[in-house]
């Protein structure tokens, strides 16, 4: 399956589209504190209540979980061309996941163990760490410790426990509201969330985000961030069109599957047939001459290669 997803991250709250080959930022929000005493600088003069700038300022001081849903709604107004919404454990609250699911979109996210959040499994409610303890009794030696279907506050979901590569004594948990895919697919798809980290690194290190100039004006910061996003989009599209074979999208993966299915023996015979036809067209050799040349060629190839070929290859 050719999978696309909407990545959402907390740093400069951003929603972006990705297919594992390209990342395109779609919407963002520059967040601030709802507590006025925590804001170092209040911008004046007064901003008109009906202006986009006022709406931006109101958005900046509400909770990030609310803004996440607003960003998702903004994206859905223009495109529904993605399969999953990805985010880390910062947003893995039942209310957020229910809101996303109510928009007919599946979620794949990281989970963290929280005291008051439980998961229904075989008639009992467990905290995440308790559920891990139950499943880890028969844990696998592979990277995937266990995979289980649970009831997450009324939402059917799959939880996949995996070893933490940075610390083998620890574990990580991924949740997917799509229970039809395998544990391996859940891990593979969530791994594509790394694209948004590359995006932030590129913007900060190469495209001048927050370094190109210093301002106190909130509107100027929004404008500057928008220009950096546009730069990244242009570079991403150019790279996809000019340098990345995966720009063919699903066709690329279909070709890869076809190439995987082509055995060495079939490929070898196809090359021999192509060579024979070329000799016949360019050198005007008879079929008998061509067959004799091919027989001589087959006699000279190593025995290890002959063993990989069908008996009638010669």
Bin the helical content.
40-55%
Head-to-tail CA distance between termini: 39 Å
Q: Residue-averaged pLDDT, rounded?
A: 83
Report strand order across the widest sheet. 3-2-1-4-5-10-9-8
Uncertain runs with pLDDT below 50, 5 residues or more? none
Q: What's the main sheet like?
A: 8 strands, mixed
Q: How large is the share of residues in beta strands?
A: 15-25%
| Helix and strand sequence | EEEHHEHEEEHEEEHHHHHHH
Describe the structure in your own words.
With 314 residues, this protein is α+β, with helices and mostly antiparallel strands. Among the domains are: 1-88 and 193-248, no CATH class; 262-313, no CATH class. The protein is built from 11 helices and 10 strands. It has helices spanning 52-60, 64-78, 94-101, 128-135, 183-191, 194-205, 218-242, 250-261, 264-282, 287-300, 303-306; strands at 5-9, 14-18, 23-28, 84-87, 106-111, 119-121, 124-126, 144-152, 155-164, 167-176. It has an 8-stranded mixed sheet with strand order 3-2-1-4-5-10-9-8, sandwiched between helices. It has a two-stranded antiparallel sheet with strand order 6-7. A hairpin with a 4-residue loop joins β2 (14-18) and β3. It is flat, with a radius of gyration of 28 Å. The model has no long low-confidence stretch (mean pLDDT 83).
């Amino acid at each position: 399956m050719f999978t696309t997803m909407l990545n959402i991250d907390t740093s400069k709250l951003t929603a972006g589209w990705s297919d594992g080959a390209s990342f395109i930022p779609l919407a963002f929000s520059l967040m601030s504190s709802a507590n006025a005493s925590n804001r170092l600088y209040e911008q004046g003069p007064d901003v008109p209540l009906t202006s986009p700038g006022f709406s931006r300022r109101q958005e900046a001081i509400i909770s990030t979980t609310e803004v996440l849903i607003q960003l998702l709604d903004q994206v859905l107004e223009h495109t529904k061309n993605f399969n999953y919404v990805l985010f880390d454990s910062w947003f893995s609250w039942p209310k957020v996941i229910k809101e996303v699911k109510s928009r007919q979109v599946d979620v794949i996210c990281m989970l963290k163990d929280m005291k008051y959040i439980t998961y229904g499994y075989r008639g009992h409610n467990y905290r995440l760490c308790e559920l891990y303890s139950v499943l880890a009794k028969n844990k696998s030696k592979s990277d995937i410790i266990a995979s289980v279907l649970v009831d997450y506050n009324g939402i059917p979901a799959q939880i996949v426990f995996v070893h933490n590569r940075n610390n083998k004594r620890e574990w990580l948990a991924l949740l997917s509201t799509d229970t039809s895919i395998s544990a391996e697919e859940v891990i593979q798809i969530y791994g594509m969330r790394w694209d948004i980290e590359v995006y932030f690194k590129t913007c900060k290190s190469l495209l001048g985000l927050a370094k190109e100039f210093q301002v106190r004006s909130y509107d100027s910061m929004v404008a500057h961030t928008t220009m950096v996003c546009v730069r990244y989009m242009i570079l991403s599209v150019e790279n996809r069109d000019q340098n990345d074979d995966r720009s063919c999208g699903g066709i690329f993966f279909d070709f890869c599957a076809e190439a995987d299915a082509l055995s060495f023996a079939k490929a070898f015979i196809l090359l021999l047939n192509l060579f024979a036809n070329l000799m016949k067209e360019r050198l005007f050799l008879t079929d008998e001459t061509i067959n004799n040349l091919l027989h001589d060629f087959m006699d000279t190839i190593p025995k290890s290669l002959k063993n990989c070929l069908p008996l009638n290859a010669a």
